[in-house]
Design brief:
This protein has 225 residues and is mostly helical. The chain folds into 2 domains: 90 residues, Helix-hairpin-Helix base-excision DNA repair enzymes (C-terminal) (Endonuclease Iii, domain 2), CATH 1.10.1670.10; 110 residues, Endonuclease III, domain 1 (Orthogonal Bundle), CATH 1.10.340.30. The protein is built from 12 helices and no strands. Helix 1 packs across helix 11 and helix 5 crosses helix 6.
Length: 225
């Protein structure tokens, strides 16, 4: 089976085994933006606690959040970890939004996809995974979010080398799949689910994995992290 065929075949296999994941859990696009920044280097449970704090304070709005002092914001989002750093990153995003788009998230999201991605990436502290999470889940544009689970699963199936870059992985997936926002969202979420349950960092648990049947001789290969 060719690489692109295998990538396409992974999706129905994961969906049948894991069911729809329904990502991203948020009430508004702005909440997605905040969650994408807060989830750096932590788990979603911690992010949920921080977002609950923001909701309780009435701060899940660009103008309201931008008015908060950095020290207070850091304390509010403390459950997300690296809270001072993440407060600075949130405020950097909000400054960009205010200075260049009048604080209007819709105006930012009206940019063409490539320009939108480039503008979000230019914000201090926002890397490709965070930027693409914002572009895919908040703006609803077809860019594939690559994370550690994606890299690990593709490498262990021999579809990429262990040293493949973010751009390499994204190009491979987007080249194999149709340009579809809902598909990219669900596929990414399913890779996370399979990674957590089966394709673990230290040792894969292949028996029962929905992708076990796609392993070939000598796999799972090393690599992916």
């Amino acid at each position: 089976m060719r690489t692109d065929e295998k990538i396409r075949a992974f999706y129905p296999a994961m969906l049948a085994a894991c069911g729809k994941q329904g990502w991203w859990p948020a009430d508004t696009p702005f909440e997605v933006v905040v969650g994408a920044i807060l989830t750096q280097n932590t788990n979603w449970t911690n992010v949920e606690r921080a977002i609950t704090n923001l909701k309780r304070e009435g701060l899940l709005d660009p103008a309201a959040l931008a008015s908060v002092a950095p020290e207070r914001l850091a304390e509010i989002i403390r459950p997300a970890g690296y809270y001072r750093l993440k407060a600075r990153r949130l405020l950097a995003f909000l400054r960009m939004l205010a200075d260049e788009f009048g604080g209007d998230l819709d105006a930012l999201f009206a940019l063409p996809t490539a320009a939108l991605r480039e503008r979000v990436l230019a914000v201090t502290g926002i890397g490709p995974e965070t930027a693409d999470s914002i572009v895919l889940y908040a703006a609803g544009r077809p860019v594939f979010v690559v994370d550690a689970y994606t890299a690990r699963i593709l490498a262990r199936h021999g579809l990429v080398e262990g040293d493949a870059t973010y751009d390499d992985l994204q190009a491979l997936l987007q080249g194999a799949l149709p340009d579809d926002v809902a598909l990219f969202q669900e596929y990414h979420a399913l890779l996370v689910a399979v990674g957590k349950r089966h394709c673990k960092k230290r040792a894969p648990e292949c028996p029962g994995c929905p992708l076990e049947g796609y392993l070939e001789d000598g796999q799972p290969a090393t690599g992916g992290e």
